Amino acid sequence: MGSITENSSSSSLQPKPHIFDIRSSLSSVKTTPASSPSSRNGGDSRRRSSTMGSESKLNPKIVTGDTGYLLEDVPHLTDYVPNLPTYPNPLQDNPAYSVVKQYFVNHDDTVAQKIVVHKSSPRGTHFRRAGPRQRVYFESDEVHACIVTCGGLCPGLNTVIREIVCGLSHMYGVTKILGIEGGYRGFYARNTISLSPKSVNDIHKRGGTILSTSRGGHDTSKIVDSIQDRGINQVYIIGGDGTQKGASVIFEEIQRRGLKVSVVGIPKTIDNDIAVIDKSFGFDTAVEEAQRAINAAHVEAGSIENGIGVVKLMGRYSGFIAMYATLASRDVDCCLIPESPFYLEGKGGLLEFVQKRLKENGHMVIVVAEGAGQDLIAESIRSMKNEDASGNKLLLDVGLWLSQKIKDHFTRTGKMAINLKYIDPTYMIRAIPSNASDNVYCTLLAHSAIHGAMAGYTGFTVGPVNGRHAYIPFHRVTETQNKVVITDRMWARLLSSTNQPSFLSQKDVDDAKKEDESPTQLLEGDDKKQREESVNDNSISSSNSG
Ligand SMILES: Nc1ncnc2c1ncn2[C@@H]1O[C@H](COP(=O)(O)OP(=O)(O)O)[C@@H](O)[C@H]1O
Ligand SMILES: O=P(O)(O)OC[C@H]1O[C@](O)(COP(=O)(O)O)[C@@H](O)[C@@H]1O
Ligand SMILES: [Mg+2]
């Protein structure tokens, strides 16, 4: 049995984490409850909701071990509900799974956030490995699950819904599964629908979400009241960064009320802007579908003298879709993303480059991510309503703006007559069903989520970290956004494939390098350095940058 000592080396800048030093076995770790239970069934807990806030953020479960090992663990129902009984996992009697050797995940298994290491590197940050456990905290007929989808559309939403329903039913014999309609506000303002393997059988072939979705409308007390009133004890929340923040406060309120309810987030973001996980579902599908728009732009541009095709792709704050679609296509002459500032006029500017490329090739294709160049069009934005119902910045159409600027330039200078075609495929891309690889990925996400909830874990987002599925505490996926690192090799690859100007001065490069070095921290010293490196190493761009 390993000795467990509370470690006091928490950062002075951050709330104090619960840190435990563990030498031999994670299973021996006992964490201090993040909040004291009120009662198992809720009791009069609703009246005392004033302390709702960021308790799990204030008390993250940190476990430390030998040679710089650090586990950022996720909450468990037993942290705040005492004496919960456990049951054998029904999977052990499931004929489909009985052939699997070592089917159950070892309790101590964790997944390293950083896999490129040196001889002397500390072992660094780890997350709890996802997967089925030998003992579960819910009996099959006790489970009353619900599923909700929030935020914008993304290919794969229906597949995740389907696989949660089928997984709960086929693996754990669960029969009570509710669909909450219309996003968060559906908990208190809409009807629910009962879901079964039969009713969701072919929904993965359809785009959108059969549950419908919404922005805004997150009223924590009303949502948790609804969960409590309906007797729901597993909540599966599918959505992006905003949704995961919402899920986090729902979890905190549930914990404050002392309810035996697991809250699980399944990350959805077509923009791929969720931190820590390797990549989000629907991203591959989006990049693939974007090829059709880029091809169309290329055909149009190539079929007319001085043709220019401009394609706007999704990416409010992160340019991953634009970057990957450009790299995949090879027909793109210039890719503009939010992370890399550009300018239009003068030497080294975009307009000069457009002119040069037209002279050389007679046509060109520009891909622009929707969040690119927003500083340049900020003046126009100021006069508009600038937030959506969820508080996301509303952007002006950079594609239209850019197209107009290019047209104005060539009209003004009279240097050449151009033919510009602008394509915005956003909603066509978002609305398609997920492709084969995303379908498989969605299945794994759903299964990992179910296994985690059944094992009593709660307050976590599920997702692959270096290819292995893990349970990640909510705050880790909401505190930063995943962005293209323009000082990484992947962006350099793009620049070299398009041969576009980088639009960067030496100062921009220095600033970008500095920015990459300052993500939020929990710990000091070596652990802090390791975390910093880990954050940067886990974006698609870095992990694939070879
Ligand atoms: N900070 C927050 N706290 C609680 N709920 C939030 C927060 N940010 C967003 N939400 C809720 O999450 C839902 C989805 O958010 P949104 O930003 O529209 O999409 P996404 O989750 O895809 O980023 C909305 O219902 C919104 O009200
Ligand atoms: O028109 P809507 O639904 O507000 O969505 C537009 C936004 O949705 C996105 O597709 C991503 O949305 P989420 O934040 O919901 O994942 C962005 O690319 C785009 O800015
Ligand atoms: Mg979002």
From TrEMBL:
Q: Where does substrate bind?
A: T269, I270, D271, M314, G315, R316, E370, Y427, M428, I429, R430
Task: State its location(s).
Answer: Cytoplasm
Where is it mostly found?
A: cytoplasm
| Record flagged with keyword Transcription regulation | no
This protein's UniProt keywords: Allosteric enzyme, ATP-binding, Cytoplasm, Glycolysis, Kinase, Magnesium, Metal-binding, Nucleotide-binding, Transferase
Q: Which residues form a coiled coil?
A: none
**UniProt-listed InterPro entries:** ATP_PFK (IPR022953), PFKA (IPR050929), Phosphofructokinase_dom (IPR000023), PKF_sf (IPR035966), PyroP-dep_PFK_TP0108 (IPR012004)
Alphabetically, which GO biological process terms does the record hold? fructose 6-phosphate metabolic process
Instruction: Please tell me where Mg(2+) binds in this chain.
Output: D241
> Binding of ATP: at which residues?
G152, R215, G216, G240, D241, G242, T243
The reactions it catalyses are: beta-D-fructose 6-phosphate + ATP = beta-D-fructose 1,6-bisphosphate + ADP + H(+)
Q: Which residue positions are annotated as catalytic?
A: D271
Task: List the pathway annotation.
Answer: Carbohydrate degradation; glycolysis; D-glyceraldehyde 3-phosphate and glycerone phosphate from D-glucose: step 3/4
- Where are the compositionally biased (Basic and acidic residues) regions? 507-517, 525-534
The record's section on Gene3D superfamilies has: 3.40.50.450
Please summarize the record's notes on activators and inhibitors of this protein.
Answer: Allosterically activated by AMP.
Cofactor (UniProt): Mg(2+)
Q: Which GO terms describe its cellular component?
A: cytosol
Q: Name one Pfam family in it.
A: PFK
Q: Tell me which residues make up the Phosphofructokinase domain.
A: 146-451
Q: SUPFAM superfamilies of this UniProt entry?
A: Phosphofructokinase (SSF53784)
Summarize the subunit comment. Homotetramer.
Any idea what this protein is called? Answer: ATP-dependent 6-phosphofructokinase
